[in-house]
Automatic annotation (TrEMBL):
Protein name per UniProt: Probable 2-oxoglutarate dehydrogenase E1 component DHKTD1, mitochondrial
Domain Transketolase-like pyrimidine-binding as annotated: residue spans: 583-786
InterPro entries: 2oxoglutarate_DH_E1, DH_E1, KGD_C_sf, ODO-1/KGD_C, THDP-binding, Transketolase-like_Pyr-bd
UniProt entry keywords in alphabetical sequence: Oxidoreductase, Thiamine pyrophosphate, Transit peptide
């Protein structure tokens, strides 16, 4: 008889809505394909018939227009330092298309339908060419030749050409001046007050403030509720203190060597250029709320990119917008509520592999976020490496051609053009929900940081930089000459802001960091304690049998599953559930996930081939052998089901995918998020994510994560590269105590379970416990099907829990003279060898299931059971625990 979901709620309510009807999220089954995703087609934008006729009538002129659209960016005036030479392109010569000569001034050509934004409906060829040069070869240009959808290209060209000629209002001009001058003033103030500070200022790239101002404004007016930003160090403090309203007092407090977190916080903090903020802005006259989250940034450039995407997807789901992104058909898709923004450096954007991995997820099922807005702060320099040493491509943005993303290149000396570029980018993002890039070509007034002397390696470049005025000063003079700004208005803004900063500096001594952690979706959770806690994760047997049976239930007679699965997977599972014994690893995992779903907690399982499982053991996603359609039984436990399993078969990426799941876990603390490596050692492709986020995120930024890493481990005939999950590396990364016993407060939990029941309890404990910690699981390979490595439903029943140490219950403690400690699969050959020796009466084998936090108390308790072996036991554990 079906059970009531209310029996299992444990006082909790669901946090996320259903993950979606499309693809492999369907309650019934999907008849499209085994991966079940259908990306919404690009909007159809037919070209006007009149335009097509004019192009047919003027084919050579149309070819010239297309040439400017495709090649104009190659000779555009983008370098504010004027150090980049350009040569004329034959593709842009009218003579290449049979145009010019004496007819250049005498024949009037139609402009409508050929070029957009031209002030006249007819014009001579020379005037049209002049217009095209201004639009595509000036300080702003569009690169879109690599876009394959012709209607999309047509829409983009029209939008760009019309926006290019659109002037800014005086209100917007003055607001832009205000933001840039404040940015410059902050850099000058910090340079004066803290002369040795590495602030990584925005000097030379102040026009990035135009990008953010326009992006935020367009987002708010377009109905966006959340902006999630990943940004490196360059200009980060300027954005924080400026538009994101981070407290200058808190910044100065940190600069003077004080902690950024409240007293007693379980954190050591991070460097100044990694500070984050979460703030709700009021945009426009309507005061529209826009929540902006600038994520913390590690020193590894571009590593934050997939974290942004993961957090954005989780946020979309938490807003109830998951159906569209999973392939739903409704036009009311709810898209555009969350804007992911990634800020890059030019050298890192073309040099770091995680950029390509992250871009590769842009349109993948279960990883899409409806497009990302990219800003490249193009210093034309990577530390000391010039572009010709840092990339093999023409532009640093050429990597985005792999996903057909348009690029707007803009000269950083022209902030109004930056506004136009961003406006076009935002219009494109809102129309197509795809990635788009703004390439801000600027310069770096100082070296990599303010203490660096760049003239040692770039003397010519810095000879030019040292002699030129700043971008805000140039813009201030421009507005004064236009009569938009009063004479000396820029200086007045700077003086006023300097006074404000001085006032905030005087407040540093009285500043006390506030405790604003664990809010919103984290409310009710706590930071881990200094003890190793035990959580009751067992459930009634009838519940386990019901959920277990549902885990292999098929929708109807028309869904033809593989006969092999019928015999080896479905039948064996049902038999073990009926008898209550012989529960294997896959069944225990399904019971853990299924019961969490039944209780209202979503689960996301991500990685390469996770639906089936690398070792063909999981089969959480069934595939019809006739229609190739997919079905997830655990998404059909009950008609009242409110939580769902998202099976995300990933691309062949480790670093970006793991970063994505980490970001997802930050946003969804009450979802179980698992990433499984295809083989245990494959995590090494994601080592940067593990080092800079997973193992250290809480210590640096007070960000908890309950992400689970499943790493198949064991030398089982697969060769040296497919065998070890390198547990020693994870143990080296833990902050396990050296001068006292461990508690749950360690930075990561590292386990090596040997029974399906233990694995069941571990997965459920990740959600049931009142804190979140990354869980590193050295998961099995050979144990998956080992007959001895099975469990009973009784071991998962009420009152049961995960045991950090599994004692030996098969021996008489009084007869034991020797205690053997082991981990993992070694228990099973050791137990078999003990039987062969006939020593089952006096040798106890104790399994260490948890390596961090190290269960010293549990070890002592187990050793106390064997009085005859106590002396030897004390010698074995005394090195670590004698201090107790």
């Amino acid at each position: 008889m079906p059970l009531s979901i209310g029996m299992l709620r444990l006082g909790r309510t669901r946090v996320l809505p259903r993950l979606g009807r499309g693809g492999n999220q369907v309650r019934g089954y999907d008849t499209r394909n085994c991966f079940g995703h259908r990306v919404k087609a690009a909007p159809k934008i037919p070209v006007k018939e009149e335009w097509l006729r004019r192009r047919e009538a003027q084919p050579n002129l149309w070819r010239l227009v297309c040439a400017y659209r495709d090649h104009g960016h190659r000779v555009a005036d983008l370098d504010p330092l004027q150090l980049t030479p350009s040569s004329p392109l034959p593709e842009l010569e009218p003579s290449s298309y049979g145009l010019g000569g004496s007819e250049a001034e005498t024949i009037l050509y139609p402009t409508e339908g050929l070029v957009h934004g031209h002030p006249h409906q007819q014009a001579p060829l020379s005037d049209i060419v002049h217009h095209l040069k201004n639009v595509y070869c000036g300080s702003l240009t569009l690169e879109s030749a690599h876009i394959m959808d012709m209607e999309e290209k047509e829409w983009l060209a029209q939008k760009y050409e019309e926006t290019k000629s659109r002037p800014l209002s005086e209100v917007n001009q003055r607001s832009l001046l205000w933001e840039m001058v404040r940015s410059q003033t902050l850099d000058n103030f910090l340079g004066k007050k803290f002369g040795t500070l590495k602030r990584y200022g925005a000097e030379g790239a102040e026009a990035m403030m135009a990008f953010f101002q326009e992006a935020f404004s367009s987002a708010a007016s377009g109905g966006v509720s959340d902006v999630i930003i990943g940004m490196p160090h360059r200009g980060r403090l300027n954005l924080l203190i400026g538009m994101l309203h981070f407290s200058p007092t808190a910044l100065f407090h940190k600069i003077r060597g004080n902690a950024e977190f409240y007293e007693g916080a379980p954190s050591v903090g991070d460097v100044l250029s990694h500070i984050s903020v979460s703030v709700t802005l009021e945009m426009g006259e309507e005061k529209a709320p826009l929540h902006v989250n600038l994520l913390p940034n590690p020193s590894h450039l571009e590593a934050v990119n997939p974290v942004v995407m993961g957090k954005a997807r989780a946020r979309l789901l938490s807003l109830g917008l998951g159906e569209y992104w999973s392939g739903g058909e409704s036009d009311e898709d709810g898209g555009g509520k969350v804007l992911p923004v990634q800020v890059h450096g030019d050298a890192s954007f073309s040099g770091q592999g995680v950029v390509m991995e992250t871009l590769g997820m842009a349109s993948l099922p279960h990883y899409g976020v409806g497009g990302t807005l990219h800003l490249v702060v193009n210093n034309q320099l990577g530390f000391t490496a010039p572009p010709d040493h840092g990339r093999s491509s023409h532009h640093c943005t050429d990597v985005v051609k792999m996903i057909g993303a348009p690029v707007l290149h803009v000269n950083g000396d022209h902030p109004e053009e930056v506004v136009r570029a961003t406006a076009v980018a935002m219009d494109y993002w809102m129309k197509f929900r795809k990635d788009v890039v703004v390439d801000l070509v600027c310069f770096r007034r100082w070296g990599h940081n303010e203490m660096d002397n760049p003239s040692l390696t770039q003397p010519t470049m810095y000879n030019v930089i040292d002699k030129r005025p700043s971008v805000p000063d140039l813009y201030s003079m421009e507005l004064e000459s236009q009569g938009v700004a009063e004479e000396g208005e820029g200086k007045k803004i700077a003086n006023s802001y300097s006074e404000q900063l001085n006032a905030r500096l005087k407040e540093v001594d009285s500043h006390t960091p506030s405790n604003e952690t664990l809010r919103d979706r984290w409310e009710g959770l706590e930071f881990a304690s200094s003890n190793i806690t035990v959580w009751d994760t067992g459930l009634p047997e009838d519940v386990l049998k019901y959920v277990g049976a549902k885990s292999v239930s098929l929708p109807d007679d028309f869904f033809k599953v593989s006969r092999r699965l019928e015999r080896s997977h479905i039948a064996e599972r049902l038999t073990s559930l009926e008898t209550g014994v012989g529960i294997n690893w896959a069944t225990a995992e399904a019971l853990a996930i299924g019961t969490l779903l039944y209780q209202g907690f979503n689960v996301r399982l991500s990685g390469q081939d996770v639906g089936r499982g690398t070792f063909s053991h999981r089969h959480s996603m069934m595939v019809c052998q006739e229609s190739n359609s997919a079905y997830i039984p655990l998404n059909n436990i009950s008609p009242e089901q409110t939580a769902f399993l998202e099976v995300a078969n990933s691309s062949l990426s480790e670093e970006a995918v793991l970063g994505f799941e980490y970001g997802f876990s930050l946003e969804s603390p009450r979802s179980l998020v698992l990433w499984e490596a295809q083989f245990g050692d494959f995590f090494n492709g994601a080592q940067i994510m593990i080092d800079t986020f997973v193992s250290s995120g809480e210590a640096k930024w007070l960000l908890q994560s309950g992400l689970v890493l499943l790493l198949p481990h064991g030398l089982d005939g697969m060769g040296p590269e497919h065998s070890s999950c390198r547990m020693e590396r994870f143990l080296q990364l833990t902050d396990s105590q050296e001068a006292g016993p461990d508690g749950d407060r360690v930075n990561m939990h590292v386990v090596h379970p040997t029974t399906p029941a233990q694995f069941f309890h571990l997965l459920r404990k990740q959600i049931v416990q009142n804190f979140r910690k990354p869980l590193i699981v050295a998961s099995p390979k050979i144990i998956l099907r080992l007959p001895e490595a099975t469990s009973s439903l009784q071991e998962m029943g009420p009152g049961t829990s995960f045991s950090p140490v599994l004692g030996d219950e098969t021996v008489d403690p009084k007869q034991v003279s020797r205690v053997v400690f082991c981990c993992g699969k070694h228990y099973y050959p050791l137990a078999a060898h003990r039987r062969e020796l006939g020593r089952e009466d006096n040798i106890a084998i104790v399994r260490l299931e948890q390596l961090c936090p190290f269960p010293s108390g549990a070890i002592h308790s187990h050793l106390a059971r064997f009085p005859s072996a106590r002396g030897e036991g004390e010698r074995m554990t005394g090195v670590r625990n004698g201090r107790e």
